[in-house]
Amino acid sequence: MLELITPPASEPVSVATLRAYLRIESADHDALLAELIAAARDTVEADCGLSLVETHWRAWLNLGSLTTVRIGEGLYDQVVVERGPVLAVTSVELGGVEVDADDWLTRGPHGKAVYAPAGLDLSAVRIDFRCGYAAPELIPARLIRAIKMLAAHWFENRQAYEQASLEEIRLGYNKLVSGFRRMVL
After folding, report:
1. Strands 74-80 vs 86-94: parallel, antiparallel or unpaired
2. What is the pLDDT of residues 27-47, one digit of tens each?
3. What span is annotated as the signal peptide, if there is one (predicted)?
4. Which domain holds residue 94?
5. Domain contains 109
6. Is 132 left (phi over 0), alpha (psi -120 to 50) or beta?
């Protein structure tokens, strides 16, 4: 189970950027555009299992068999937390006892896994971790485009959705996010 501890402090697409994308000159719709950007970001993040901007999460896991990997000189058990890219593990509790989070590793540009020192009992674990891209320019351009596409579509189609317009957006959107779905390492 995942719980959001700290939500994003900013959006990966600014209202001014979306306004320019839509060719809107006036600021009359800025509140609506901000709402649509947040909803589009949330949709992309949920579909891809990613946090585009930095957030803080808590995962409760009951782990059975794990994959053990060698990293450097040590052996580590891979723990998938279903949200990435993981920037840092901030705290860990095993069976209700706080342990040193500094011993846990992260790796990979879109990684949704953390690495625990091998041999720990991970049958009941709580992991707090920060995730998101370390800088806005590191967010993949395809995901930024997907956010703009969704927000623009919702802005231009505020009435009841027609099947044809949904199908057009679905094809383009799926192409943009397809490479980011279900990425683990």
Report:
1. unpaired
2. 999 999 999 999 999 999 999
3. none
4. 55-131
5. yes
6. left
